[in-house]
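Record type: ASSEMBLY
Status: queued
Input:
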Amino acid sequence: MINSVRQTVMSVLNKNNYGYISPSDFNLFAKQAQLDLFEDYFYSYNYQINKENARKSGTGYADITKGLEEVIDTFSSTLPLIQSVQKTNGYFLPSLLTTNNDYYLINKMLINNKVIVFGATTGTVGGQNKIIDITADFNADGVEVGDIVGVEIGGIAYNLVIIAINTTGTELTVAPNVVNTFPLNYTIYKKKNIKEAEKVTHSKITMLNNSILTSPNLTYPAYTQEGLIGDMFPDEEVNHPGQVVCQYIRFPFVPKWTFVTLANGEPAFDASQPDYQDFELPNDDEVNLINKILQYAGMSIREVAAVQFAQAKEQGNNQEEK
Amino acid sequence: MSYITQYQYYENGGLPPENANWGSYQYVSLEDIVNNFMLMYSGNHNLVNNEERFKVLFHAKRAIQELNYDAFKEIKILELSVCDTLRYVLPSDYVNWVRISLYRDGLLMPLTENIQTNWSGAYLQDNDCRILFDIDGNALSPQYSDLDYDRIKGTKQSIYLNQHSEYYGKSGYCVDGAWYFEYGIGARYGLNTETANANPTFKINPKGGVINFSSGMSGELCVLEYVSDGMENGDDSLVTVNKLFEEFIYAYIEFAILSTKLNTQEYIVARKRKRKAALLRNAKIRISNIHPGRLLQNLRGRDKWLK
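Status: finished
Output:
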């Protein structure tokens, strides 16, 4: 879609061959435009909910909320979080460093609330899909196929699924194949024992912890946010690797129109470049992306007519959608 | 909570304790209640919206506590022997008592509460009745007050009740099961009916966390029937409520939240209040198990001959 957007923008902008924006400028504008539209989805979603509550929204093909949800959900990710070194109950929230993408909104934090056993591996013999601990007896501990093994390898947290246990109970076969080191701290969680942790503000958490009826526990865990770390409660019980799983809405990847330079200096689109990144918004946003980029580009070359044209088109679109 | 197989129900899947799931189908767990409420009664299209889960949990627990106090017919019973201190420490989950009985010779004998106090705190005093203090400024207390001492040692007078004795109805001293009487002069008037019972009496010291008995209870077995608040010693995963009250709890939570939420129209609050009250009445009637067969059995008592 990105090439089509660029060509349309260039085409509208072109005036006596001086309406030109460079690929780097285009990429900057494209990022801004995508972020604008991405954020608008959340406001539109809220607007549609209010319309539904006012009984001014339909069902079936008229269910606008459903479409908006679908777009937002394309940015949904669910990943286990890695533990902070400073605090055992602290888990790093999604970031480029920890989960390879930034979060826009944390939708829910989940806790594996039933720890069966934890320990450290004693070897890696047999491939990267083995959890080996010769001091353990996983069968006696009640570990079953399908249970979850939480580990952190190379700064990434994994929740591995047990697919087999050997007869002596010292070796688990897990998926996916990522276990490439030892000793490795592991914690095994009972499958399907997941509870949602509730976000609590700092102004409430102290009182909540002191509350006899509602203090956080493994059935009703809670968390606060401090910087890029989520502090989990009850802190003495939520402190194992892979115990916290986050479902969040990530930011869209930064779009990049990549090119090869031809002999005459004119850049030609090349989607095979390793840093190529298309827009992540759906195709029906192409018009909105063009209008947004056109406004930035028009401003860039001080062409007021282009800005006004794009604004008018955008307003028209918005009116139609409401 | 998911449904369980009959093997899991009757034998807990072969794991101890075998009786872990017996009768469990009567109950819905607190976890299910909160989960169901968040799912069904809270959200973008509901009256309850943008409320923290801990508030829902709080109101759910408060509803369960209130139900435990009177609506549920779930009495806990604990038997303990009373030693020579004549004290019965209240159970850790005690909220209020229903009946306190003496268990002797295979019979439960309900005891009477002595509304006159039989226990007291005390401070040490000098000859001028001035209270004595320690170096920290705290008043010094004896191990027992005189009131306690008299009760425990049996040196406190009480009414002797034995119709076959000439001392029937007289004040005396019960010491180690033997009765002693003062030499009586003149007539006696007025029986203290509050303690006029052959069995020992008791008085509860709620803050002290004990039941204090009169001296006749020494070495006897006491059966305490009491109500708790259903909080299962803080383990939320064990808190359950009878299914007959499930809908009431949802209504209670909804009302509790809406009635304290800013800008909720009064007619909505009133509607929710009525719903809550109606559901509670229904649930109480249901759990009372009033049905023709039961009434019939009671009514048969009409034919009983009174001597």
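Annotation: Helices of chain B lie at 6-11, 30-40, 53-71, 146-153, 246-259, 266-288, 292-299.
Annotation: Chain B touches chain A at residues 31, 34, 44-45, 52-54, 57-58, 61-62, 231, 234, 236-237 (CB under 8 Å).
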